[in-house]
Amino acid sequence: MTSDPSYREKGRAVFLAAIMIVSVFAMSAAFAGTAVAEDPEGETLDQAYDAAGPTWTDGDVETVYIGQEITIEDESLASESSVILYEGPASLDDPERAASIQIHHDQEEDRHWGEFETADLEPGEAYHFVAGDSEFDEKEFWTAEEELDVEFEVNTVTQDDTVDLEFDSERDVQHLNVTSEEFDGGELDDLFNYTDEWQNDYTDDVLTLENVSAGEDIEVDFDDIEPGDYEFEFETTDSLAWDNATIEVVDDDASVDFADDIGGERGDVIDITLDLEHVQTGAVQIGDFDEDNFQAAAHFDVDDYSADEITLRFDTYAPNDGEDSWSVHPDDADEYDAEILEGYTAINFEEGEPLGVHDYEIIAGTSYDEGDAETHAGVEEDSETDTSFFSVFEPEPVSNVDFEIAPAGTDLGDYDEYDEAYMTSSSEVAYHDELVVTIEDFGLSGAVDGMTTDDVGEMLEEAGMEITVEEQDPGPNVDPKVWSTAAEGDEAIDVSAVYTDLEYYDGDLVATLDYTEADEFDVGGYDLTLEISEDSMFADDEDEEIEIESSFEVVEPELDLHPDNDEIPNSDEAEVIGTTTVAPGSDISTGASSAGNFTDGADAVVDDDRTFTAVYDFSDYEAGIEFDLEAEHDDSSEFGEFAGDLEDDMSSVLVDAEDPLINLNADAPDEVEPGEDAALDVTVSNDGGAADDVDVVVTLDGEELTDETITLDAGDTWSESFDFDTAEEGDIDWDVTAGDESDSGTLTVAEEEEEPEPEPEPEDDDDDDDGDEDGTPGFGVAVAVVALLAAAMLALRRQD
């Protein structure tokens, strides 16, 4: 026995404990990030496969896995009869005794050692030795409960096939015993394709695998194994860790089959969905070079045996890019680690042309033939398991061009940002708000997916198309300005794709029109045209040109508080309203202040009808208090020179919320053409707290259309529409009164004025300057005739 440790020894133990704790944390990190050994022979256990556990020498200790039998051996133990094992770190006061380890001495071999079991120790705890003057005195170690995970990478395997068995453990390397009720040791030895260096001998019932690395895959060969379910048990040779794995052997054939009909428009990336039966690798071939002037093939691999269906993709827009023409659907690449191992393409038509319209034979099989100098790559003939058609159709024409708007400064760099943005369908955009163009049924997913930048213009030009923007009203005697995605310099306009990822692209091309960056682009109406040339695949013949037209209007950004805000009820939900031309979703800040009474603020968001409403709580204030209202666009700095137009202020007064508050809204167009529908829309609302009788009078062109008294309860609204007679040109005055509120205006009915065509510039007559055999040098014909007559008269006078 050894004596209790001194205070000096305890101090030294505290220092060693700190070092040990740091090392334990480092070890934990190392276990968490253990890498799969590329060569299991490069890492081995110090202990033999039939040893019950490791042997520690020179005082060196390591993590103990519960169940191991630990041997401590060192010359410094020569004077010790026993070593005491205590729970906890060496710095712990009054630790609990865990075990007494008898030290054995072999004088002939000069060997001194002791052994102790760890099955009864607590996992995840620290222990330390008290060992007199030996190297093991106050040495600490930690215990761990080893987790062993063994599984086949597939639940079923065909007869005569092989399958990988994957091992994972908290230890980098371990020895494993394998048993099965269905197989003896020799049969297990035949099943496991393990090298002689890695595999130890076997007994009648047990196969021992030596130095198995964590994460290592071992191939199991089920050649000549009868169909049925088979279970294997695995346990480490020294700890209590164990696991089992079960697999079913079936007599089905391995195959790759087509799950659905395959086809798409010319220029698209077309999906090829495959059903996988007991395979991890296979091949697909499209077309026959001799018959179709085209052939493509792919060799694919699936790392996850559980995959029973995957989707490959082929790009008909770029059918001769080899492996780049092929891809795996992103979902399958992520979930099953599916990948294209080899991709092959060959064409006998003009480079850069999309794949032609045709029904190409497509073949699936389990093996890939790389081909050679005289043959093309494809599916190995003996492995073919299914055939179908890969149909390429004529592309449908573009159906329409639509517009959306978003608040200025909205990030639209990818699908997620676009999907989360406040988008509004509208062809009217306030200058500096975002304008998004959607070309419906554009298709060409191959071209879209192949874009290396977001420049739509470059992609359109390659496809024989361009977008032009032309101003509608340039003014008299001036040609309209025109911008194009195919132009450069002052005449260029940029169109940038919002997203091109095929995960989200559904055939509609969504892009931003960067109109504010175009030279001399101003407020006004514009025609946008998608021009499709005869070089595009959308054109049916060489002389056909297609134009898809649409239009939009750029307006000045404006913000106004509504005149009805001159009286605001002193309620807890008092509304301050306003109108604006900026995009719905824009943030507006409002403020209300009355000297000596209150200063308050409320935020609002522009609604789809371009109005905004801020709600205040004025319930604590008396009616009659006058105050100032103000409103401002939160991002007015985005609007440059128009920033000052996005703020407004006005005076208001609080009125009793219990009284009626009548507001009138009358709306009519300013100008229409003869015969065009036009109406005056009248809305009378009671925004107060009590009912009221309101006299409503509506007059059109001097004729009183209605004169009635309506009763409006608090919160009620009355609406009516009155049609104008627009059969003849002229001005139609209208007037509406509702109680003390009134509004009026004029509708002008007139034909739209046609813009005068610019006068043609006089053509230069080079003959007048240079002269030739049909003219008189330096003179026009009339001048020459007059000169000849004058000469004749002078000659007659001289004769007289």
From TrEMBL:
UniProt-listed InterPro entries: CARDB, DUF7827, Ig-like_fold, PGF_CTERM, Surf_glycop_sig_pep
Keywords from the UniProt entry: Cell membrane, Cell wall, Glycoprotein, Membrane, S-layer, Secreted, Signal, Transmembrane, Transmembrane helix
Domain CARDB, residue spans: 665-740
Biased composition (Acidic residues): 730-743, 750-775
Compartment list: Cell membrane; Secreted, Cell wall, S-layer
GO cellular component: plasma membrane; S-layer
Family: Belongs to the halobacterial S-layer protein family.
Protein name per the record: PGF-CTERM protein/surface glycoprotein
Source organism of this protein record: Natronobacterium texcoconense
Lineage: Archaea, Methanobacteriati, Methanobacteriota, Stenosarchaea group, Halobacteria
